[in-house]
């Protein structure tokens, strides 16, 4: 099953969570040149599958952490989502920070 992406003027996508699905969505949006924000509590993705290899191969552990800011630049916001205001189309983060949708 495939999907089609259509660019809509003025649309901004907010991806909550930088796990495998969130990263895949953000990468797709980035490759299509669409406006998005990826929000995650952590500053990097930890590739758990590679953890076993990291325990036996010197220097490999640092490769299991992929910093979101390096991959997504200004499209990444670190924080905890408290709620989504659908009327105002905003995401409210812990501490009162607001991200527009």
Automatic annotation (TrEMBL):
Its cofactor is 6-hydroxy-FAD. It holds the Pfam family Pyr_redox_2. Belongs to the FAD-dependent oxidoreductase family. Residues 12-54 form the FAD/NAD(P)-binding domain. It comes from Seriola lalandi dorsalis. One of its GO terms (biological process) is positive regulation of apoptotic process. GO terms for molecular function: electron-transferring-flavoprotein dehydrogenase activity; flavin adenine dinucleotide binding. It catalyses: menadione + NADH + H(+) = menadiol + NAD(+); ubiquinone-10 + NADH + H(+) = ubiquinol-10 + NAD(+); phylloquinone + NADH + H(+) = phylloquinol + NAD(+); menaquinone-4 + NADH + H(+) = menaquinol-4 + NAD(+). The keyword Amino-acid biosynthesis does not apply. It comes from the Eukaryota. This is Ferroptosis suppressor protein 1. Keywords: FAD, Flavoprotein, Oxidoreductase. One of its GO terms (cellular component) is mitochondrion. Gene3D superfamilies: 3.50.50.100.
